[in-house]
Design a protein that fits this description.
- The protein is α/β, with parallel strands linked by helices.
- The protein folds into 3 domains: 86 residues, MurE/MurF, N-terminal domain (Udp-n-acetylmuramoylalanyl-d-glutamate--2,6- Diaminopimelate Ligase, Chain: A, domain 1), CATH 3.40.1390.10; 210 residues, UDP N-Acetylglucosamine Acyltransferase, domain 1 (3 Solenoid), CATH 2.160.10; 32 residues.
- Strands 8-11-14-17-20-25-28-31-34-37-39-40 form a 12-stranded mixed sheet. A 10-stranded parallel sheet has the order 9-12-15-18-21-26-29-32-35-38, with no helix packed on it.
- The protein starts with a strand and ends with a helix.
- Helix content is 19%, strand content 28%.
Length: 347
């Protein structure tokens, strides 16, 4: 239970009305006594008097709204997320290594680490303070795990992979498998050894069943604060810039460079050696075959500037009508030509 003014201090907002006590957060329709809700649009402001919530989080243009105590914030969505984090239940993990875990030689595992049954840790592995390895995690030789990381069941780290601090890897994700590198000698495919690694920065979260391949040389790099959804594949030698978001089912080919604060929507595909500039947005199901400038918004297959793609799609929607009119016009002119031909013969 906290005062509304304490939450305002946490998120850089201000209180309008009574400084009530808050016990949690809830959606507008479900909020009850003691809870803070978000009222981000005018249609919710009008209904505040009928809400059972203790207070409402609102943007600055709702300052004059009445009916509830208000927490006014410049970025209400960000503020709501931070307040929700404060009230969210966190699983408590007892520190220690389960006797049913396997730990190799010369490992450096902080005493305040939780290693569950069924975890397998190779030789010379480092695990930082407060990290949690849940059942079924496999960490192979020479891997490094920073502080306060969480590896959910079934995560696999290949040899030499390095995680920063507060990295979260969800179930089934594999980091550091071989990059897909082969050359054809005329008779068979010859494997190119993948001798590099994967480096993941601080505060990265990667969803379930993702795969990030190790580099052929050097490192595949995921910079800090990157957020990756479920079922994403990132190939060898890629670099993903900080604060970039990659949504589910994306596939990124080898040696791609993605800048900072980019967004790749669902099912985007990126061809190898492409560069995507800072703050670019790749819309859903786009196929990117060439470089994307910083700040651009692209869509379609092949990906092009979004406004141009909208014009192309508008034209395509008219295509059946245009084909029908063309056929009708051609049919009419053909009948007229036959009539003239018969008339000429008759004369």
């Amino acid at each position: 239970m906290v005062r509304l003014s304490e939450l305002a201090e946490q998120v850089g907002g201000r209180v309008v009305g009574e400084d009530v006590e808050v016990t949690g957060v809830a959606p507008f329709e479900d909020a009850g006594p003691g809870q803070l809700t978000a009222a981000l649009r005018p249609r919710y402001w009008r209904r505040l008097p009928e809400s059972r919530a203790a207070a409402a989080l609102v943007p600055p243009d709702a300052d004059g709204v009445t009916g509830k105590p208000l927490l006014v914030c410049e970025q209400p969505k960000v503020a709501f997320a931070r307040i929700l984090q404060r009230f969210a239940e966190r699983a408590l993990h007892s520190p220690g290594v389960s006797p049913e875990a396997v730990v190799g030689a010369e490992c450096r595992i902080h005493p305040d680490v939780s290693v569950y049954a069924g975890v397998v840790i190779g030789d010379r592995v480092t695990v930082g303070r407060g990290s949690v390895l849940l059942p079924g995690v496999v960490v192979r030789d020479d891997a490094v795990i920073g502080e306060e990381c969480v590896l959910h069941p079934g995560v696999v780290l290949y040899p030499g992979v390095r995680l920063g601090n507060r990295v979260v890897l969800h179930a089934g994700t594999v980091i550091g498998a071989d990059g897909f590198g082969y050359v054809f000698d005329g008779e068979k495919q010859v494997k190119i050894p993948q001798t590099g690694t994967v480096e993941i920065g601080d505060d990265v979260e990667i969803g379930a069943n993702c795969t990030i391949d190790r580099a052929t040389f050097g490192a595949t790099v995921i910079e800090r604060h990157v957020k990756i959804d479920n079922l994403v594949h990132i190939a060898h030698n890629c670099r993903i810039g900080e604060n970039t978001v990659i949504v589910g089912c994306c596939g990124i080919s080898g040696s791609v460079e993605i800048g900072r604060r980019c967004v790749l929507a669902g099912q985007v595909g990126v061809a190898d050696h492409v560069r995507i500039g800072d703050d670019a947005k790749i819309l859903a199901r786009a196929a990117v075959f060439k470089d994307v400038p910083a700040g651009a918004v692209v869509s379609g297959t092949p990906a092009r500037e979004h406004r141009e793609e909208l014009k192309v799609q508008a034209a395509l929607r008219r295509l059946p009508e245009l084909v029908f009119r063309r056929r009708k016009s051609s049919s009419g002119s053909g009948e007229e030509g036959d009539c003239r031909s018969r008339a000429d013969k008759g004369s």
